[in-house]
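Record 1 of the preview.
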Amino acid sequence: MSKSSTESFTRRRKLLSEVERLAKVAVFGTLSETYRTCGRPGCHCQRGGPKHGPHVNVSYRGEKGKTTGYYVPKGAEDATREGVAACKNCRSVYANWRS
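->
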């Protein structure tokens, strides 16, 4: 093997291991945060005060191209944020691998 093909092989192996690492935690989708008013008449959110939130949701394009999503519980917000970031990084690494 020539030096350039060895370097190319090494580079691709590094990128592949990075994709494997990211894929273990990747969450496909886009995060959004919403703030809401509740139904309690005396609550601060009903009197112009700050709304409740943020409530985190993940949306993605599901079957037949229809956008769908799900609510992320409070305890899973940080892990989900990291997973969405990992998915974005995974795409970037994959794009570098192809070049």
